[in-house]
Amino acid sequence: MDLKWFRVPKDIVFGEGTLKYLSAIEGKKAVLVTGGNSMKRFGFLNQAREELEKAGMEVMIIDGVEPNPSVNTVVDGGRKMAEFNPDWIIAIGGGSALDAAKIMWVYYENPETKFEDLVAGKFPTLRKKAKFIAIPSTSGTASEITAFSVITDTVNKIKYPLVSYEITPDIAILDPVIPSKTPAHITANTGMDVMTHAIESYTSTAATCYTKPLSMESIKMVFESLTSAYSDGDDIKAREDMHNASTLSGMAFTSASLGIVHSMAHKIGGELGITHGLANAVLLPYVIEYNRKSTDGFDEIEKTLGVDDIVTTVKELNQRVGIPLSLKEIDEVEVSEENFKNVLERMSINAFNDPCTLTNPRNTSAEDIKEIFLAAYYGTTAKNI
């Protein structure tokens, strides 16, 4: 029997000021997991602690999660949690903090877990010791709503998308005040991550009547609100729309999965250190060109948005929010031709073997992916691949 699923957190709490919801949960101990200093600097980490203390909880903080969380980070986090024994794990921050906290949760409850089993989709049962709350600080990864976590094997330089409904958060808290402090370039990168989630989940071979309306609504909201959120961080309406669009796309792709934009972004991020959302943004129009002959989905998106060419529309949106049109133009890290060529073959094979490739609308190959990478690097076209 071909069973299909649509699963999201039990509770999604959204709107301005909803961080206060933490004061209403019941428990004895809570761990707050976060990344760098931004949640601390803007007072959100302290506010979260205070709300939990109002609920009568003892609170421990695990901070310093790196931008591409490693296997060592999540194993060590699980060990620290085991020493504290919390009944709530609360991740607050960007996608990296949320992703890391999910796998720390796995190692807290099941310290004998082998990372290789997680890569293979073999997850232990959770919620024997703790439940999980996710509070995103960026409008992009949708980790607050999904069964996904991306963890980096720093030895082999590979980002692994780990997938299990066990790590879907129990509660997602979407307070748009938190991402209002996000710098413009991060707003751009994470916002285009949302667009990529939405477009890829809409055209996925696993898309259903449950997921496609969510994907399309997210596409519309990003198209209408990203530029405003980027140019005016205090535009709380645009911020709220982007935050909700991120979650809507996450609700779609956690059930429908994605495509080779993500397969390729995972691998080029692991090899060259390009930020995930930025890699998605640059790769997206080239993959659309490649996939177009195998799906009517892009025609439907164009009709809904009232545009003639979705490739041009995506490129123009990238330009409006300061994102380059080719990989060689990226300046956040050095993407020299020599370095790119040195990893191209391995990167293409690994991208082909990524789980997201399975639901790409067009059957592909490592050789085709290599050609798409080349088109995206030099800024040419992928129409003829």
The share of residues in extended strands comes to 5-15%
CATH fold-level name of the largest domain: Dehydroquinate synthase-like, alpha domain
Count of alpha and pi helical runs: 14
Main β-sheet description: 6 strands, parallel
Order of helices and strands: EEHHEHEHHEEEEHHHHHHHHH
Total domain units: 2
- Percent helix: 40-55%
Text of the CATH class of the largest domain: Mainly Alpha
| Spatial strand sequence of the major β-sheet | 1-8-5-4-2-3
Question: Structural class given helices, strands, pairing?
Answer: alpha/beta
Mean pLDDT: 94
Task: Kindly provide the radius of gyration, computed on alpha-carbon positions and rounded to a whole number of angstroms.
Answer: 20 Å
CATH superfamily of the largest domain: Dehydroquinate synthase-like - alpha domain
Quickly give the CATH architecture of the largest domain.
Answer: Up-down Bundle
Q: Which stretches are low in confidence, meaning pLDDT under 50 for 5 or more residues running? A: none
How would you characterize the overall build of this protein?
A hairpin with a 4-residue loop joins strand 6 and strand 7. The chain has helices at 38-41, 44-54, 71-84, 95-109, 115-119, 184-203, 212-231, 236-256, 260-272, 276-291, 297-305, 310-320, 337-352, 366-378; strands spanning 11-14, 29-33, 58-62, 88-93, 131-136, 148-153, 158-163, 171-174. Helix content is 49%, strand content 11%. The mean pLDDT is 94. By secondary structure, the chain is of the alpha/beta class. The longest helix is centred in the middle third of the chain and has 21 residues, at 236-256. It is globular and about 60 Å long. It folds into two domains: 11-179, Rossmann fold; 182-378, Dehydroquinate synthase-like, alpha domain. The chain has a six-stranded parallel sheet, sandwiched between helices. It has a two-stranded antiparallel sheet with strand order 6-7. This is Iron-containing alcohol dehydrogenase.
